[in-house]
Each structure stands twice: as C-alpha cells, then as structure tokens.
Amino acid sequence: MARRKKVYEGKAKILYEGPEPGTLIQYFKDDSAPTAAEATPAAVEGKGVLNNRLSEFFMSGLNAIGVPTHFIRRVNMREQLVRMAEIIPLEVVVRNFAAGEISERLGIPEGTPLPRPIVEYYLKDDRLSLPMVAEEHIVAFGWATQQDLDDVIALALRVNDFMSGVMLGVGIRLADFRIEVGRIWEGDYMRLIVADEISPDSCRLWDLRGLVDRGDGQPIPEPGPLADVYTELARRLGVLPSNVTHTVKPTLIN
To answer: Using CA atoms, how far apart are residues 14 and 196, in angstroms rounded to an integer?
Structure first.
C-alpha cells in the first residue's frame, strides 16, 4: 500500500492527500484538546470513530438542505473524503444562550436566552489563545472581505437553524457552537462552505430530558450538560457504531 502524504495534523484530526485533485482524507483521532492541567491532549478510545459518524450525520444533513459543506462521503470508521478548501482563519461562534466566555465577559447569568443568535469571530491562532476579533479587524487585515462576512453570517445562521432543530428533536438544547468556513472555486466563481467538522467537540449541549412540570409547585430544574455526550448524542441520533461504548465529556468552546 502506498504511503499517504500528510497535509496537516491538528489536535483532533489529520488531513491526508485525497485520491483525486481537490480532495482530502480527513482522519479523526481519539485525542482530546488539552486541559489547563495537561501538557498534551489526552487520548480517549473510540472518540474519533464517534466524531466521524456524528460529523457525517450533520454535514450530510446540511448538504441535503442546500447548505454547502466540504463533506463528500465517509470512507471508513475513522475517515471521510472532503473537498479541499482555503480556510478563512477564523472560528465562527454562534451563541443562542449565555454560557462560558460571554457570561464572564458581559456578566450575563449562564443559561440566559439571548435576544437573538449572536455570531462572534475568534482569530485562529493558538499562540494568541484565539482572541476575539471584530469585523473591522477582519476586513482591515485582509482575513476576509465584508461580502465574505455577510455570507459567513448567513451560512452560520442557517447551520444554527438546522442544528438547533435536530438537537431539540432528541431532547437537547444547543447553547452554542463553532464552525470553520472555507473558500472553494468552481471555475471563476468562489463560494463559501462549512469546513472542518461538526461534533460534540465544537458544541455546547444541554440535556432537556426530565425537565417536566411536576405540578407540585416546585421549580423545574435547569438543563445541565449532556452526560456522556459523545455516546449519548450518537445513540439519540441513531448513529452509534455497535462496537463503541465509551462515554466521555466534550471539549466545550469558550
């Protein structure tokens, strides 16, 4: 078997040259992003298999409703064939409820519904700890044009509508999530697509099951983080591989 050429390796994935020009093989690792107490990522057996299946599920669903993504097809339990794209150096975060960094920054109690989905941008540079940036920075430094940003917002909000509906259907609240966006060219025409992955690594999910009015005058419990998120989400969506049984917590976005 010919040795494949590695194009890029990140915390959770490896990209290899694809079988055809303009394609890549995306391999999902078991590594998790490191915590403050870890110098290197921790390996969690089976996580890559689940994230491969979950990302396939979400990307395929987006493709089916006309939201363009880089996903072409799943190759095996850990790999998928994707389109090569020029990644805009931003993490695009969509927030539906206050949690994490926005609660700390603005003093909004965690769990508070936001007046409308809020789209934020963070510069993809781990050396700088992914700083939040404004549209003025993005346009001034040439990371994207104003038209790009208008298209990114439209794309992100369509992803949010789809993801929120899918999650609500299985008793989960989508508090926030992040995506990456890439550019592809079809002849002289450029368009933006959803790239990278969509998985529990890039979402903050709260479990809504069991939140029922008990009729005894007691307050209804607030939703909490989804326990054993990778396995439980895959089980509820019907994509759990039969040979994967591990349960771990997700890496939440800021």
So the answer is: 11
Is the pLDDT assigned to residue 1 strictly greater than 50? no
Q: What is the pTM of this model?
A: 0.87
Q: How far apart are CA 52 and CA 203, in angstroms?
A: 15
How many C-beta atoms surround the C-beta of residue 48 within 10 A?
24
Q: What is the DSSP letter of 236?
A: H
CA–CA distance, 170 with 176 (Å, rounded to integer): 17
Are 186 and 68 in contact, with CB atoms under 8 Å apart? no
Residue 132 sits at the vertex; the CA angle it makes with 163 and 149, to the nearest 5 degrees, is 60
Lowest mean pLDDT of 26-40, 121-135, 221-235, name the range: 26-40
Q: Please report, for residues 11, 236, 244, the alpha-carbon distance to residue 119 in angstroms, rounded to integers and kept in the order given.
A: 24, 27, 34
> Helices (DSSP H) in the chain: which residue ranges?
47-64, 101-106, 135-140, 146-169, 229-237
**Phi and psi at residue 6, to the nearest 5°:** -75, 130
CA angle at 140 for the pair 138 and 142, rounded to the nearest 5°: 65
Q: Is pLDDT above 70 for 214?
A: no
| Residues 152-161: tens digit of each pLDDT | 999 999 999 9
